[in-house]
Specification:
- There is one protein chain.
- With about 550 residues, the chain is an alpha+beta fold.
- It folds into three domains: about 250 residues, no CATH class; about 80 residues, Sandwich (Immunoglobulin-like); about 130 residues.
- Helices cover about 15% and strands about 30% of the residues.
- The protein contains six helices and 30 strands.
- The protein has a nine-stranded mixed beta sheet. Strands 24, 25, 26, 27, 28, 29 and 30 form a seven-stranded antiparallel beta sheet that branches.
- Strand 3 and strand 4 form a beta hairpin.
- The longest helix is centred in the first third of the chain and has 23 residues.
């Protein structure tokens, strides 16, 4: 996927700073769209006449899926209609939602409300409603983990002074016998519950013709400016636990074209989903019980919620949820998906290290998040896309450093890339020494350095020692450089670093009696970082002749 997903926020201030920029575009877009939402709803044309609808109030159809419900203040809302479904049964472990200060998307949150008609005494307690919300949040968390967000996801709810879910208790002036969806929303809006950065999760403590009803917007646009990403929205449970279902409508489930959508009914037919039941929609099919272990928020994560594209059955590039409105996306302001707020960790599994002779290097690496992409940088280059196994060929001699960083599907980059440093050196070749016991002059053939590039070089040196068989004394050092003549022939040249003289050999004086001369060849290879790799060899005995140690020759003779 190109964007999405969210680790539990423990340092709100840190997260607020770290991710404010990531959501800045989304927030500004939301501000501009917020003013448009009421106008866009008002502009929806009725395709039939306005009429009173039982339990809903004055309404008209604006599409096969949506009603436009008129409110007392002259505004209107869109809804798919009343839900006759039963109580949502969730087996998830309860979990507290986040407070608004921990929302990296900004000041967007749900508000929990217990409301009741003026002539009814409410039974629902604050403790009970909090427990219901913790249950649906636990279900959301588990569904997010299942769909690929390792640390899950949480709803964001308004909190009280001690950090627990704030529950507003609101007595509405309309008596029970006259209550409709329209009157409840009208009464709440009259008391200020109409903010664009709030969605309202309402327990209405009186019976109605339906289990619940929620507002929603028919828009499948895959973007943060989708009207489903704005408030206000209202999800009402009529003394019947449909909180997660109605809130699902508030955030845009189920859109008409989703794979298992019932179409005009606004639900789905893949059980056991919170949003699915047989509603008689124009795309509905007989219910298919795909998930039988428990009730899911979105079974197989393919209709409206996938916390990380690719993990769900409907995931992958070009899938419905990859290209359409998805409640699990990073741009959704009402849910914190931790795959969007926790960058992945990068690990290099294998590849060269230390000193090697091969100019080809292959690396295998991984990320802590499934589906993450990778970016690699060799030495001082730029980061670019890569994938394991990553191979580099024709490397220059010298030191190299590879940096690899993982990028989550939500665009978060590992701030501490994995690195590996290694050095490439030419294969050491010993060459030969020509020794003569009758002459103090020695001829030396330089080692041949194969495949050297301008950035890599070899320095060799022949050291002459006088020895009495017990100890040795350095008499003269004759270093040389290896140059390349026309036609590619290797030309050894003596070069005296002390005097700058260039000769074809070194003249030594005769050794005093009882001692002898020998030559020790020292080969020094330098990598690009200037780090030498050396090999020293000493005579094995006091006898004359030419011997080889470690693949490099040396010569010595009695004086």
């Amino acid at each position: 996927m190109r964007r999405s997903r969210r680790t539990r926020l423990t340092l709100c201030a840190v997260l607020g700073t770290a991710f404010a920029a990531a959501f800045a575009g989304s927030a500004s877009a939301g501000a501009s769209k917020a003013a448009e939402k009421p106008a866009r709803i008002a502009a929806k044309k009725c395709i039939d006449g306005e009429r009173p609808v039982r339990g809903q109030g004055p309404s008209c159809r604006v599409s096969k899926s949506l009603w436009k419900v008129k409110l007392r203040d002259g505004s209107a809302v869109l809804t798919h209609g009343g839900d006759a479904g039963g109580t949502t049964v969730l087996a998830a472990t309860p979990r507290s939602p986040l407070c608004p200060t921990a929302n990296p998307a900004g000041d967007y949150y749900q508000v929990a409300i217990v409301a009741w008609p003026s002539d009814v005494t409410p039974n629902e307690t604050d403790v009970s409603l909090r427990a219901r919300i913790q249950a649906i949040n636990g279900s959301l968390y588990e569904e997010a983990v299942e769909s690929g967000s390792p640390s899950g996801a949480d709803y964001v709810f308004a909190c009280d002074g001690v950090g627990q879910i704030r529950v507003d208790r609101v007595s509405l002036p309309t008596p029970a016998a006259q209550t409709t969806f329209s009157t409840i929303l009208s009464d709440l809006r009259a008391q200020g519950y109409k903010k664009t950065n709030e969605k309202y999760v309402i327990w209405y403590d009186a019976s109605m013709p339906y289990c619940g009803q929620g507002t929603m917007y028919e828009d499948e646009t895959d973007a943060g400016g989708n009207p489903n990403n704005l408030g206000p929205d209202y999800g009402i449970s009529y003394d019947c636990n449909a909180l997660m279902h109605e809130h699902g409508h508030n955030v845009g489930a189920v859109q008409y074209s989703s794979p298992f959508s019932s179409g005009s009914g606004g639900h789905c037919w893949q059980e056991s989903d919170v949003m699915c039941y047989a509603d008689g929609g124009d795309r509905a099919k007989p219910l298919v019980f795909t998930c039988t272990d428990r009730q899911h928020y979105d079974c197989k994560h393919n209709d409206y919620f996938d916390a990380k594209i690719g993990a769900g059955e409907g995931g992958g590039a070009g899938s419905y949820l990859d290209t359409s409105w998805n409640i699990g996306e990073c741009y959704v302001r009402w849910i914190v998906n931790y795959a969007c707020t926790s960058p992945p960790e990068t690990t290099i599994e294998s590849g060269p290290s230390g000193i090697v002779q091969s100019r080809v290097a292959t690396f295998v690496f991984s990320a802590s998040e499934t589906g993450a992409s990778f970016e690699c940088r060799l030495d001082l280059g730029f980061y670019g896309p890569c994938s394991p196994p990553q191979t580099y060929s024709n490397l220059a001699f010298g030191q190299h450093t590879l940096s690899i960083r993982a990028r989550s599907s939500g665009g978060l980059v590992d701030p501490t890339p994995a690195t590996r440093t290694w050095s490439v050196t030419p294969a050491r070749q010993g060459g030969s020494l020509s020794c003569s016991a009758s002459s103090p002059r020695m001829s030396v053939a330089a080692p041949i350095a194969q495949g050297l590039e301008p950035s890599g070089y070899v320095v060799t040196r022949t050291d002459f020692y006088r020895s009495d068989g017990t100890s040795s004394t350095l008499v003269y050092s004759a270093p040389w450089l290896v140059g390349v003549a026309a036609g590619g022939a290797t030309v050894p040249t003596w070069y005296d670093y002390a005097t700058g003289a260039v000769t074809n050999g070194v003249q030594l004086s005769e050794a005093p009696g009882g001692s002898y001369w020998f030559a020790l060849q020292l080969v020094v290879w330098f990598d690009l970082a200037g780090q030498p790799v050396t090999a020293d060899y000493t005579p094995a005995s006091a006898g004359g002749g030419t011997q080889t140690s470690g693949g490099l020759p040396f010569c010595y003779w009695p004086s």
